[in-house]
């Protein structure tokens, strides 16, 4: 066979193979094994939508959850809600799959029942009721208690010997006491009206300043109000020179957060439960409070703080590794 014929046949074979590669609907040819190799299908990540109420503790918990789930193969969407009613409604309607809630908030605000002083009992009772409406409460953390608390300036407390909320009520007699709180506390079952009745306050509505939760501590610090009903987990309390008054009549029940997930989401993605329980187990009080301080006072980025928390907890690797 002469050289020109060999060259011609070689060109024909190459062209035929190229044509087969273009027209073959089943994938590329494996020349070693003489078989067709199917293209791997693109990996579709399970999708989950998570939510947060609009204050720092919730932001941090949501960001920690989102990063942790993404690291474990989920496509995560995050939504921030203004108040408890909106986020609960979104969960019940399936708009979101998960957020962090407090058993006594659910007990008082959604189930319209009295608060329960014992945190574990509150958790069990609320979880049992919510199970009936397709909501699952996962492991609760005892490390954080986001109870409501009465805040005043340290100087005021020391000057007048105010140590308890009853002390403040006695101090306020015959004075124009101004306090700050948020709109939710005005309408909650454990809100401003029964609170005043319990402690004997008579604060006119015009003396109650309604603001965003993140502004409570600052309002007291700057003496725009004498007191605020805020959260015990607020990272600004100590650096702003404020003190928490003892709830001597035991009005405020505990508020320990736990992930709440729709039963439908867990059925579709059962791996969410052990993942979130593992995350909950890493939460430590002093460390978490330090991170809240860094977010609230030092204005560090919450997403970066959440990632750092997970790295230090040993759940994920740092981006540099």
Automatic annotation (TrEMBL):
Organism superkingdom: Bacteria
ABC-type glycine betaine transport system substrate-binding domain sequence ranges: 47-310
Cellular component per GO, a single term: ATP-binding cassette (ABC) transporter complex
MF terms in GO: transmembrane transporter activity
Record's protein name: Glycine/betaine ABC transporter substrate-binding protein
Organism expressing this protein natively: Paenibacillus thalictri
């Amino acid at each position: 066979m002469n050289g020109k014929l060999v060259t011609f046949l070689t060109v024909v074979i190459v062209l035929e193979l190229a044509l087969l590669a273009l027209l073959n609907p089943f994938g590329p040819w494996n020349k070693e094994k003489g078989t067709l190799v199917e293209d791997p299908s693109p990996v579709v990540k399970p999708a989950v939508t998570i939510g947060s109420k609009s204050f720092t503790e919730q932001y941090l918990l949501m960001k920690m959850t989102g990063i942790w789930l993404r690291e474990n193969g989920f496509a995560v969407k995050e939504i921030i809600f203004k108040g408890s009613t909106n986020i609960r409604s979104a969960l019940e309607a399936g708009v979101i799959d998960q957020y962090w809630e407090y058993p006594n908030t659910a007990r008082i605000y959604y189930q319209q029942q009295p608060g329960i002083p014992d945190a574990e009992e509150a958790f069990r009772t609320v979880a049992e009721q919510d199970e009936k409406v397709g909501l699952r409460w996962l492991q609760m953390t005892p490390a954080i208690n986001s109870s409501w608390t009465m805040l005043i300036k340290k100087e005021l407390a020391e000057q007048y010997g105010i140590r308890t909320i009853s002390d403040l009520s006695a101090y306020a007699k015959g004075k124009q006491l101004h306090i700050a709180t948020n709109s939710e506390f005005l309408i909650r079952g454990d809100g401003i009206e029964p609170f005043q009745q319990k402690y004997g306050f008579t604060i006119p509505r015009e003396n109650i300043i309604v603001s965003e939760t993140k502004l409570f501590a600052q309002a007291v610090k700057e003496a725009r109000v004498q007191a605020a009903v805020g959260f015990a987990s607020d990272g600004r309390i100590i650096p702003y020179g404020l003190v928490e008054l003892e709830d001597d009549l035991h009005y405020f029940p505990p508020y320990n957060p736990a992930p709440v997930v729709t039963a439908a989401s867990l059925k579709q993605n059962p791996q969410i439960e052990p993942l979130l329980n593992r995350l909950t187990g890493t939460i430590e009080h002093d460390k978490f409070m330090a991170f809240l301080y860094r977010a609230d006072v030092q204005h560090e980025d919450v997403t970066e703080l959440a990632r750092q928390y997970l790295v230090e907890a040993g759940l994920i690797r740092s981006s540099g590794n």
